[in-house]
Amino acid sequence: MAGLITMDDLSNDEIQSILNDAERLLPVAEGKIYLPLLQGKILGNLFFEPSTRTRMSFETAMKRLGGDVVNLGDVKTSSVVKGETLFDTIQMVDGYTDIIAMRHPRQGAAQYAQDAARVPILNGGDGAGHHPTQTMLDLFTIKQAHGRLDGLKVVLAGDLRYGRTVHSLSHALTRFGCELIFASPKLLRMPAEIVEDLSAHGANVVETEDLLSSLADADVVYMTRIQKERFADEDEYTKVAGAYKLHASNLEGTKEDMIIMHPLPRVDEIHPSVDKTRHARYFEQAFNGVVARMALLCRLLGVTVPEDIPSAGGEF
Length: 316
Fold this sequence. Notes:
This protein is of the alpha/beta class. It is 34% helix and 14% strand. The chain contains ten helices and nine strands. It has a five-stranded parallel beta sheet, with helices on one face.
């Protein structure tokens, strides 16, 4: 594989295969066993936007597998402030590393970077565009909870207009025949072109502003925060801030195995009372970023994950 820019770069069989690799790598991600599959390899972390989970999980994934990481660091202290172009930055880091994970505020930047690079690019989020590595950890979380991906009813709620996580995830879920419910304020509805594309690919899509009435028969509820940084007009943000707030009391009558996910960080859309319920999976979901990205790093670097990894122990 050249890189992972959107979920279209993976077939359904490849997705399932990578998720199977991730499951076998769980004890490695948990630090129970040392398996240096990527020893001698270097990951370049290029984050032109703030990140906690994505950047740290990439770094953890690479180091758990025996590889090393070089970071761009604070953009304000890099050559970007001197006017260095993205093309030149990629050309430079391409010579230092074996693979690059990149986040950039401009939609389409990841594809531009892949066109400029010789090493694989892993898109860690490009503006309001795509976030395929997040989608892979989301799919892993869903599969771990339900044992399958196909035929589930999934509610995607909150900022569907600017949320790159839900853009990528909705496409992937459609490929596995899931029913999608988009719950959002009118101002933050899923872009019409995405809804049209999903429908053209056979998706069963329902759009609503009423989140709570959608909970009863959901298998997955995927909450997102209202992203203040994506709004050019602060008045528009004020109109929708705090539109949805999920409390533990809202979960009465839901399916016992329904899970609540969130790409984090959360603001006030999930009350802490939900954390102690059997439905909360968002912190486990964040950890799954390590194991999913371990599997992706191996796949893109052409390294085979062994079939018989011990569940615990010392060095493999």
